[in-house]
Automatic annotation (TrEMBL):
<protein>
    <recommendedName>
        <fullName>Restriction endonuclease</fullName>
    </recommendedName>
</protein>
C-alpha cells in the first residue's frame, strides 16, 4: 500500500503538470528515486524500469488514455501505446523498444529511454551489422547510442518504415560520448536525442519541436 500510494502520487503529478513539467524536473524525479534507493541499499546497479515508467505514464496521459494497460499496451481508439512490445527486425531478430506509439497498427513514434550514455560491448549480432561497423570505425568505440540506433533501424521496415524516433537520455551526455550522438544525428534525420538533465524547457515543448508531436 505504501508503494502504491507513492506511485499513484507520481502518476497524478505527471497528469496534473502535463503541459508545464520541465525536462529537468523529470530528471529530478528519477534522481530522487535513485537517491532514496541508494540510501537504503547503497546500490543502484540493477535498478531498471523507473525511467521507462516515467515516460510511459507521461505519454499515457498526453494521449488521453484512460483504460487499463493490458499485456503492456493501452488503447484509445486507433491509437495505442506499448512498453516493451516485441517487433521482428529486418535481420530476423526480435527487438523490444522501450515505448512505441502506434496508429492503426503502424509505429508513429518510438521512444528509447536511457539513464545515461556509456561505452558498451556490441553483441555478436551487432558486430555483423555494417551500420554498427561503420559507426564504430568512425567513432572509435561502440556506445549505447550506436547500439540503440542499430536496434531502432532494424525495426524500420514493411509497415513500420516511416516512424520518427527519439532517445530520451535522463543524465547529461559526457563529452566523450557526444561524437557518436552527432554522427547519428547527421546520418538519420528521423532520429533525435533529448537530454533531460539541466534542460529547463517543458518536456511537451521539446516533443513538439523534435517530433512534431501535438499534445
Amino acid at each position: 500500500m505504501i508503494f502504491q500510494n507513492a506511485f499513484t502520487e507520481l502518476d497524478s503529478y505527471l497528469k496534473q503538470n502535463l503541459n508545464t513539467v520541465t525536462c529537468d524536473e523529470l530528471f529530478k524525479l528519477k534522481k530522487d528515486f535513485y537517491g532514496m534507493f541508494d540510501s537504503l541499499s547503497n546500490n543502484t546497479a540493477n535498478l531498471t524500469g523507473f525511467t521507462e515508467l516515467i515516460i510511459f505514464r507521461y505519454l499515457y496521459h498526453a494521449f488521453n488514455m484512460t483504460g487499463e494497460v493490458i499485456n503492456r499496451t493501452v488503447h484509445n481508439g486507433d491509437t495505442s501505446i506499448s512498453i516493451g512490445k516485441r517487433f521482428n527486425g529486418k535481420n530476423g531478430k526480435y527487438q523490444e523498444p522501450d515505448i512505441v506509439v502506434e496508429q492503426d497498427g503502424r509505429i508513429e513514434y518510438l521512444f528509447s529511454i536511457k539513464n545515461i550514455l556509456s561505452t558498451v560491448a556490441p553483441t555478436e549480432n551487432e558486430k555483423r551489422s555494417k551500420l554498427v561497423q561503420q559507426l564504430i570505425k568512425t567513432n572509435g568505440v561502440c556506445t549505447v547510442a550506436i547500439q540503440d540506433i542499430f536496434r531502432i533501424d532494424n525495426i524500420r521496415h514493411d509497415k513500420h518504415e516511416d516512424f520518427k524516433s527519439i532517445t530520451v537520455v535522463f543524465s547529461e551526455i559526457a563529452p566523450r560520448h557526444q561524437r557518436a550522438v552527432e554522427l547519428i544525428r547527421g546520418q538519420f534525420e528521423w532520429h533525435r536525442f533529448l537530454v533531460l538533465e539541466n534542460n529547463h524547457k517543458p518536456f511537451v515543448k521539446e516533443l513538439e519541436d523534435i517530433l512534431n508531436l501535438k499534445i
